[in-house]
């Protein structure tokens, strides 16, 4: 038998096994390949090397591998590299000599993006273990650059990958909007230099713009690696910038148009040639551009931007090339075009052509493909989904049919105060929906989770209608009890958190009924406590939807929140401080949502809602740190204060920051998910938390009616769903797909490095606008 034919047959057979394996099996195969490739690179290349672009590009990928795998060796490798380089790029200190306008490897090319890409990894390392030393030089360089009048810092396509993510990462760390403003200004200038507006592709730089420069066959010469840098950089930008940023759509449109152009130029075998639009210019395999494209496309698929099947087809064909051709038997990555700036006719690129940046590009693509393949296989998410569904199903199924008040097994406190027990049903429905609204807002799919989610949402819409329909048996108790103000606020909160999926689909009659019921609650005079936020949440929601709003109720609550803030993330529940979890149950979430609603409404009053929001957000992030540190190595947290039967609601601000992608430095997605999951297991596994009808029982960790307060019924307990907010993140989001990491108490009690804590001061000042 022909040896070459035999080898080809074996390779094809192996690839067939990969193609027809289950997603989970494929993911495990790729995980093994990732470890093989990264281990091989690190064993044969010292970490102690310079921080120039080629090494730094590899480290951007190494950090992704660490997040996905949790392998401490990979983290240590990047730490050694950063320490070796003193957390700097180019090391020149005389600002009068700093350069950027031409290629340069000297210490004075501080403003040249190829020396700035290292700041991406330094920022990632800072987020894991905050230490100002890690980003001091990055901030010095970038903030000096932003202080200059020049906007032409990114004059070559590669620079968009090198520096755009630096800007967004430092924005997330500092909260300084100038990073976003300059990001937009810089790329507008870049577009004027090298963007081909017809295709959305980029020429490598101004020297290669058509028709002044043409490929061998007279075509536009788009260099694959150059456009790969751009697509990957745009994906990283979109992962970081705020959802409501004024220029986000500019970047989204650019990313999608570029993706379309990339897919159209893919070769049948899955790779892209070096000159994308002219395969004859420099024919043959090329891995670095192909890998960056694969990463960029898969990121868009994983995050809902690229939904057509053409994108997935292109990404899977590209992965086929990367896995069966680019990946060599010894774990090296071949067919990488050497360092350069263009497609060179006749240049030899073969299986022995490898590099640091090409290996990094391959690893980025592999990590993103694993996230795609494992999106329905995450055991932590499956556990959360199962628990959330168990909690919600009997409530929503019965209420959708108008049978909740008929069938719910109600339990009240042994020292119940005698109010109408029908308050139970609004407490049950409102609090449950406030917790699961983000989850029910995810797009439909045919996964097991998706089927459960769609069913719950269908039931929820019917339940919302019954809740305000006087003819329904499940019309809620909107009057005669002051408690209605409390749980109407949680209903309003559910609409805020699921606005597009839960409020907008309601028919006009149902919407008007809610507006009427919310408005009628103004007759209730809230006590001088957290109840002021129930009024402000309802009124600010009315403002958000354009209905009549009592601004006094909103603004007076805001002023009282400022009076009652005690510092370091804690609010007093009224004039006197109480050591309890009401900062979790009410203060942080509803204060933030009140302020955001007023921002959204565009109302102009004496209060600068934007500045108040920024200050409140900073406090919430500090409180998230407090909560995470309260979780013990065993997955428990201290039981103190009233309303402890609310269970996991104690962790709501931590869950909220995770869902809103605003976790503070030092709290990673992997560690927060691991910590919350551990608490859920301790609280719910094998405990008597549900009665025979499937409804929650009064207790903290099982049935413990003796800890109930005089106002507690088992509807109150559905506030525990407020810890499920991160289910609103897609299955491919790093919160779910990153490896579980030890949380702070685990690190501290096992002798590992952990972030030191400090007091957070209010540094955002507000004055009445008039």
UniProtKB/TrEMBL annotation:
The protein's name in its UniProt record: DUF2264 domain-containing protein
